[in-house]
Structures are given as C-alpha cells and as structure tokens.
Write a structure and sequence with these properties.
mainly alpha; about 140 residues; 5 helices
Length: about 140
C-alpha cells in the first residue's frame, strides 16, 4: 500500500507546479459549481400569493407573515408576494383575518386599460378571469 501512495505522489511531482496549480484551480471551480448548484436546487418552491399590490400592502403583508413564521419573498417588481408551495391557503386565510391586502382589487376596469387589438384569446381569458376574481372579492368585502 505505501508503494502505491509513493508512486501516486511521484506522478503528481512529475506534473510540475504549473499543471498542479491548473488541476487545483479546476477542482476548486468544480467544487464551487457543485456548491452553488446544490444551494440553488434546494431552495423551496415558491407560489404567488398576491400580485399588483401597493408597496404599503407588501410591507404589511411581510410583517404579518413574518410574525406567523411563514416564509415569504417579494417579487423583483416589488408588487408581488410569494410564499413556499403548500402554504398559500394558510397565508391567504391569515391575511384575510387581518384585512389584508387593502389595495383595490382590479375588476372589470381591467378591460378599460387593455387594448383588444394585440391580445391573444388566452390573454383575453386570463383578463376575464382576473376581472371576475376582482369583482367577486369586492362583493365579498362589501358583505362584511
């Protein structure tokens, strides 16, 4: 066994300093890529909780979710809130108890801001669903 180790060491010495440094650099780069990939792939999957919020609502929602111990993230645009997958319903119920969000829900006025010339049928359906959701939310809030 010691002879094998000595032959391995002798082989490494025969590479020279330059090749050993290059091999060490490549090994460090591979380890860094593996580390970054493992951190990136082990992040929890996030689902959208709310979009199109005012910044004050995003701040209040963040405080409530943090107090409840629910992890959250704010979208890059600063107007959307994301929560880990599987906690969306719990977060929505918690926020509904607190009366959040207070931003006006977009209802049928969504159609006022959208030109129908460039819309695909899919985008029209999405706008229709969003408008209906907003109108239903307004109706429920007016009942309370």
């Amino acid at each position: 066994m010691p002879e094998q180790i000595q032959s391995i060491i002798a082989n490494f010495k025969s590479f020279g300093v330059r090749r050993l440094a290059l091999m060490g650099g490549i090994a460090a780069l591979v380890m860094a890529v593996i580390g970054i990939a493992s951190v990136y792939l082990n992040r929890p999957a996030y689902e959208t909780l709310y979009v199109g919020l005012e910044r004050s609502d995003v701040n209040q929602i963040g405080l409530v979710l943090a107090d409840a111990g629910i992890g959250f993230d704010v979208g890059s645009d600063g107007t959307s809130v994301l929560v880990p997958a599987g906690t969306t319903a719990q977060a929505r119920m918690l926020l509904a108890e607190k009366g959040l969000p207070t931003s006006a829900n977009a209802g049928y006025e969504l159609f006022d801001n959208v030109g129908s010339l460039g819309l695909t049928s899919f985008m029209q359906q999405i706008t229709r669903v969003r408008a209906l959701e907003g109108e239903i939310a307004r109706t429920i809030q007016s009942i309370s």
